[in-house]
Design goal:
The protein has 323 residues and is of the alpha/beta class. It is built from eleven helices and 14 strands. Helix 3 packs parallel to helix 4 and helix 8 packs antiparallel against helix 9. It holds the Pfam family Epimerase.
Length: 323
């Protein structure tokens, strides 16, 4: 099989590239000329340079390709360039889908997010759930929802596309959680906000396998939630701190966290700075709760992920070796 991975140098994309190569597949990666390629240093991926909006680059990258895995996205909360996020997440996805249809690829797997369901207010939902949240919690929330709507329209028009919807993606090289985990395992994280926040967890390699299974087995237009389960942030710290003998951080006062977010938000906008807390980030910590059931992927794709506890323990052990 010959596969194209958009965003091949990213966290999810690079793990997918490696898994495909381990299977003996030929892999093409679409990356920008400015991309950091360190994650691909030990791979044989053939790189095509171009932006998602560059349809000629997309046509070149898809030449002779059987499967397109669209993982590229602008992922960020807080103070973001909403116009750029729209260009990447919505218009970029539009370009990938339209070119894939034009060149008649056999299958497209789109990496979406459980965020498209909106705030489920703690209700555990599956793929049949219809979003009830009327507004959007962030530019990321809105752009990924709009992209998903377009992908579904393309499926109705005959594009053989399948959507996987991961929860929180974790791995030993995770750019978001690992810096926090390193600080915690060094004993330097004494205070944390939102210990009761529920987070879905999936190992990045299990997500990559789910995408390959979706390419091989899923009918056109299907959606698959990809999550090993969920737990609170406090429980997460308890699991990763157990072997190191480190207690979970103390919970920061909610009122203080909200106050700090309200103060730092306008300062960040004024100085073009991404503060550690903003109104949007505080909203995600305290006010939004998306919970999902991934039974469909287990049942229909025979997806068998490692458990949440095993995922977190494995990552913690890998990080500890680098301290």
């Amino acid at each position: 099989m010959k596969a194209l991975v958009t965003g091949a140098n990213g966290f999810t994309g690079s793990h997918l590239v490696r898994l495909l190569e381990q299977r003996g597949d030929q892999v093409v990666g679409l990356v920008r000329k400015s991309s950091n390629l360190s994650r691909l240093a030990d791979t044989q991926v053939h790189l095509v340079y171009g932006d998602l909006s560059d349809r000629e680059a997309l046509r070149t990258a898809m030449q002779g390709v059987d499967i397109v895995f669209h993982t590229a996205a602008y992922v960020e909360l807080g103070l973001v360039n909403a116009a750029e996020m729209e260009r990447v997440n919505v218009e970029g996805t539009r370009a990938v889908m339209e070119v894939a249809k034009e060149v008649d690829v056999a299958k497209v797997v789109y990496c979406s997010t459980i965020g498209v369901f909106g705030d489920t207010q703690g209700q555990v939902v599956d793929e049949t759930f219809q979003r009830t949240q009327k507004d959007f919690s962030s530019a990321y929330d809105r752009t990924k929802y709009d992209a998903q709507v377009f992908v579904d329209q393309m499926a109705q028009q005959g594009l053989p596309v399948v959507s996987v919807m991961p929860s929180g993606i974790f791995g030993a090289d995770d750019p978001h959680f690992i810096p926090v985990l390193r600080q915690f395992l060094k004993g330097g994280l004494k205070l944390w906000a939102g210990g009761d926040r529920v987070t879905g967890v999936v190992h990045v390699d299990d997500l990559a396998m789910a995408m390959i299974l979706a390419a091989e087995r899923a009918p056109t237009g299907e959606h698959y939630i990809i999550s090993a389960g969920d737990l609170t942030t406090r429980e997460m710290f308890q699991i990763v701190g157990q072997q190191a003998g480190i207690a979970a951080p103390t919970e920061a006062p909610k009122a203080l966290v909200r106050l700090v977010g309200n103060i730092l938000d306008p300062l960040g906008r004024l100085f073009s700075w991404q503060p550690p807390l903003s109104r949007e980030r505080v909203h995600y910590v305290y006010d939004r709760c998306v919970r999902v059931d991934a039974a469909k992927a287990r049942r229909e794709l025979n997806w068998q992920p490692r458990s949440v506890a095993d995922t977190l323990t494995e990552i913690a052990q890998a990080v500890q070796k680098t301290l």
